[in-house]
Specification:
The chain is an alpha/beta fold. The protein is built from four helices and nine strands. Helices cover 24% and strands 35% of the residues. The protein is globular, with a radius of gyration of 15 Å.
Protein backbone atom coordinates (compact mmCIF):
# COMPACT_ATOMS: atom_id res chain seq x y z
CA UNK A 1 0.00 0.00 0.00
CA UNK A 2 1.29 3.47 -0.83
CA UNK A 3 0.70 5.32 2.43
CA UNK A 4 1.93 8.57 0.88
CA UNK A 5 -1.42 8.80 -0.91
CA UNK A 6 -2.97 9.43 2.51
CA UNK A 7 -0.67 12.28 3.58
CA UNK A 8 -1.78 15.83 2.85
CA UNK A 9 0.69 18.71 2.52
CA UNK A 10 -0.32 21.96 4.22
CA UNK A 11 1.87 24.88 3.12
CA UNK A 12 3.05 27.54 5.57
CA UNK A 13 1.91 25.69 8.73
CA UNK A 14 2.65 26.23 11.57
CA UNK A 15 4.62 29.13 10.07
CA UNK A 16 5.63 30.44 6.66
CA UNK A 17 8.07 28.22 4.80
CA UNK A 18 7.08 24.98 6.57
CA UNK A 19 5.22 22.23 4.70
CA UNK A 20 3.22 20.33 7.31
CA UNK A 21 2.62 16.64 6.68
CA UNK A 22 -1.01 16.06 7.71
CA UNK A 23 -1.72 12.44 8.71
CA UNK A 24 -5.46 13.06 9.20
CA UNK A 25 -6.46 11.35 5.91
CA UNK A 26 -4.48 8.23 6.93
CA UNK A 27 -6.14 8.15 10.36
CA UNK A 28 -9.61 8.72 8.88
CA UNK A 29 -9.46 5.53 6.80
CA UNK A 30 -9.67 2.52 9.14
CA UNK A 31 -8.14 0.10 6.63
CA UNK A 32 -5.18 2.38 5.92
CA UNK A 33 -4.69 3.15 9.61
CA UNK A 34 -4.67 -0.57 10.48
CA UNK A 35 -2.28 -1.32 7.61
CA UNK A 36 0.08 1.44 8.79
CA UNK A 37 0.04 0.07 12.35
CA UNK A 38 0.67 -3.43 10.99
CA UNK A 39 3.60 -2.19 8.90
CA UNK A 40 5.18 -0.44 11.91
CA UNK A 41 4.56 -3.56 14.04
CA UNK A 42 6.26 -5.84 11.50
CA UNK A 43 9.70 -6.69 12.75
CA UNK A 44 8.75 -5.89 16.33
CA UNK A 45 6.45 -8.83 17.03
CA UNK A 46 9.34 -10.96 18.30
CA UNK A 47 10.79 -8.17 20.44
CA UNK A 48 10.07 -7.97 24.16
CA UNK A 49 8.67 -4.45 24.56
CA UNK A 50 7.46 -3.35 27.99
CA UNK A 51 6.42 0.22 27.16
CA UNK A 52 5.56 2.14 24.03
CA UNK A 53 6.26 5.84 24.40
CA UNK A 54 4.26 8.22 22.21
CA UNK A 55 5.13 11.88 21.74
CA UNK A 56 2.34 14.45 22.02
CA UNK A 57 0.11 14.60 20.28
CA UNK A 58 0.07 12.92 16.91
CA UNK A 59 2.46 10.25 18.15
CA UNK A 60 -0.24 9.01 20.53
CA UNK A 61 -2.41 7.55 17.76
CA UNK A 62 -0.08 4.85 16.46
CA UNK A 63 1.75 4.43 19.78
CA UNK A 64 -1.41 3.18 21.47
CA UNK A 65 -2.16 0.81 18.59
CA UNK A 66 1.40 -0.51 18.74
CA UNK A 67 1.21 -0.91 22.54
CA UNK A 68 -1.92 -3.01 22.16
CA UNK A 69 -0.33 -5.20 19.47
CA UNK A 70 2.85 -5.61 21.57
CA UNK A 71 0.94 -6.29 24.81
CA UNK A 72 2.85 -3.37 26.32
CA UNK A 73 1.98 -0.33 28.38
CA UNK A 74 1.60 3.11 26.82
CA UNK A 75 3.54 6.12 28.14
CA UNK A 76 2.78 9.66 26.94
CA UNK A 77 5.49 12.26 26.58
CA UNK A 78 3.82 15.64 26.66
CA UNK A 79 4.45 19.34 26.41
CA UNK A 80 5.00 21.27 29.66
CA UNK A 81 2.19 21.48 32.20
CA UNK A 82 0.07 18.64 30.77
CA UNK A 83 1.10 15.80 33.09
CA UNK A 84 -0.34 15.83 36.63
CA UNK A 85 2.41 13.98 38.55
CA UNK A 86 6.14 14.55 39.13
CA UNK A 87 7.96 14.94 35.82
CA UNK A 88 11.35 15.13 34.20
CA UNK A 89 11.72 17.84 31.56
CA UNK A 90 13.94 18.05 28.48
CA UNK A 91 14.37 21.10 26.19
CA UNK A 92 14.83 20.63 22.45
CA UNK A 93 15.11 22.58 19.20
CA UNK A 94 12.52 22.45 16.44
CA UNK A 95 13.05 23.43 12.83
CA UNK A 96 11.09 26.58 13.74
CA UNK A 97 11.91 27.27 17.43
CA UNK A 98 12.36 25.52 20.79
CA UNK A 99 10.08 23.60 23.13
CA UNK A 100 10.13 21.18 26.05
CA UNK A 101 8.89 17.65 26.68
CA UNK A 102 7.93 16.01 29.96
CA UNK A 103 7.48 12.46 31.21
CA UNK A 104 6.20 11.16 34.53
CA UNK A 105 9.11 10.17 36.76
CA UNK A 106 7.61 6.71 37.38
CA UNK A 107 6.49 5.97 33.79
CA UNK A 108 9.35 3.59 32.91
CA UNK A 109 11.13 1.25 35.27
CA UNK A 110 14.91 0.75 35.01
CA UNK A 111 15.70 -1.98 32.48
CA UNK A 112 12.31 -1.94 30.75
CA UNK A 113 12.44 -2.32 26.97
CA UNK A 114 10.97 0.71 25.23
CA UNK A 115 9.69 1.50 21.76
CA UNK A 116 9.52 5.22 20.92
CA UNK A 117 6.95 6.37 18.38
CA UNK A 118 6.16 9.72 16.81
CA UNK A 119 4.38 10.74 13.65
CA UNK A 120 7.26 12.65 12.00
CA UNK A 121 11.04 12.56 12.23
CA UNK A 122 12.21 15.97 11.02
CA UNK A 123 15.34 17.55 12.54
CA UNK A 124 15.43 14.88 15.26
CA UNK A 125 15.27 17.33 18.16
CA UNK A 126 11.97 16.04 19.53
CA UNK A 127 13.02 12.40 19.28
CA UNK A 128 16.41 13.17 20.81
CA UNK A 129 14.73 14.86 23.80
CA UNK A 130 12.34 11.91 24.21
CA UNK A 131 15.25 9.46 24.11
CA UNK A 132 17.05 11.44 26.82
CA UNK A 133 13.93 11.23 29.00
CA UNK A 134 13.59 7.47 28.40
CA UNK A 135 17.23 6.92 29.32
CA UNK A 136 16.99 9.20 32.37
CA UNK A 137 14.37 6.74 33.70
CA UNK A 138 16.62 3.77 32.90
CA UNK A 139 14.67 2.56 29.87
CA UNK A 140 16.33 0.35 27.28
CA UNK A 141 15.42 1.89 23.92
CA UNK A 142 14.82 -0.90 21.39
CA UNK A 143 13.69 1.22 18.44
CA UNK A 144 12.44 4.65 17.44
CA UNK A 145 9.77 4.48 14.78
CA UNK A 146 7.89 7.07 12.78
CA UNK A 147 5.11 7.27 10.23
CA UNK A 148 7.04 9.88 8.24
CA UNK A 149 10.69 10.81 7.91
CA UNK A 150 11.75 14.07 6.28
CA UNK A 151 15.12 12.82 5.07
CA UNK A 152 16.39 16.21 3.89
CA UNK A 153 16.42 17.43 7.53
CA UNK A 154 18.82 14.63 8.61
CA UNK A 155 17.01 13.82 11.87
CA UNK A 156 18.50 10.32 11.98
CA UNK A 157 21.86 11.88 12.79
CA UNK A 158 20.59 13.04 16.19
CA UNK A 159 19.21 9.62 17.11
CA UNK A 160 21.82 7.41 15.50
CA UNK A 161 22.29 5.43 18.72
CA UNK A 162 18.79 4.00 18.22
CA UNK A 163 17.42 1.61 15.62
CA UNK A 164 15.16 3.75 13.42
CA UNK A 165 12.21 2.70 11.29
CA UNK A 166 10.13 5.04 9.13
CA UNK A 167 7.06 3.98 7.20
CA UNK A 168 7.34 6.79 4.64
CA UNK A 169 10.27 8.95 3.57
CA UNK A 170 9.99 12.34 1.95
Amino acid sequence: MDFKNYIRDIKDFPKKGIIYKDISPLLANIDVMKAAADALFEGLQHQKIDKVVGIESRGFFMATLLAERLNAGFVPIRKPGKLPYKVYTETYDLEYGTNQLEIHQDAILPGENVLLHDDVLATGGTAEAAIKLIRKLGGNLIESNFLIELEFLNGREKIKTSAVQSLMKF
